[in-house]
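job 3f2a | input accepted
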Amino acid sequence: MSTALAEKFGAEKFGAQKFGAERAGIAAAADPAERIRLLQSRIREMQATTLPTRGIATHPMFANLLPDGMMQAGSSYSVLGSLSLTMSMLAAPTSAGSWCAVVGVPEFGAAAAAAHGVDLSRLVVVPDAGAQWLAVTAALVDVLAVVVVRPSRRVSDSDAARLSARMRKRDAVLISLGDWPGSDARLTLQGGSWQGIGDGHGMITSRRTQIVVESRGRPPRRTNITLPPPAPITADEHEIARHEPERSVPVRLPHAV
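job 3f2a | predicted structure (257 res):
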């Protein structure tokens, strides 16, 4: 037997012996709590050996909220009830040079997106994909870094699994406006107040609210944020001027009685 083969055989034998010893140790533990602790320790060791995923440019306000502190290639995220929050998630990747897309959201406004820091020159918008929305989303996942979609019907587990496999292969991210089966994180906004409105007059300039992020295997995380958020990265002043709309929306309120 060659030295290399012997070393390989020895390593495999040692690995098998170690695994067998661990199983025996877990089985021998009399206390159920101790068995659970040993199993959890073993699972953590196995998880630590998984291959790392590639991170996607993410706005700093999500750093302490999302798993791993940023959006991960091959992952999916559900955003409930907030197009503004979705625009904020697109700001960093487009500003970093990644192409993104929005499917099935006809009210997605270019001016509002630019106000949230989205680079419009890196954005593809498909306002209405009709019954083919899933096929369109899958095609865009093949070529773009981040795809936002609003499903026009309930997504089956099998459809979500097939698209997830495609995303992992292409290192893409999916953001669903609404629930998505098996999403890695679920983002919602709770409460909040509007800034800029006076007594019967004024301009809405921003919104203070709380974001709540629920992800598998850990308790919900929450923090207060301002929308639109500050720009995620420094950009050329000319490009900002070319895309930047007015950051306020006029609102006329009735005078208090």
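job 3f2a | The two ends are 96 Å apart (CA to CA).
job 3f2a | closed
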